Task: inverse folding
């Protein structure tokens, strides 16, 4: 549990790492997957289209 010492909040390393991923993580994941699909589609059309 977070404690306050000398006006500063002190947490253990485990407590400090337990942040919730916000919407920016979801946006980054969505953009990365979309870009990967787009690049793979371009490669497929350029090299494997019969």
Result:
């Amino acid at each position: 549990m977070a404690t306050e010492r000398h006006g500063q909040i002190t947490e253990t390393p485990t407590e400090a790492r337990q942040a919730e991923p916000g919407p920016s993580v979801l946006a980054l994941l969505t953009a990365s997957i979309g870009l990967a699909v787009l690049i793979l589609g371009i490669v497929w059309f350029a090299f494997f289209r019969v």
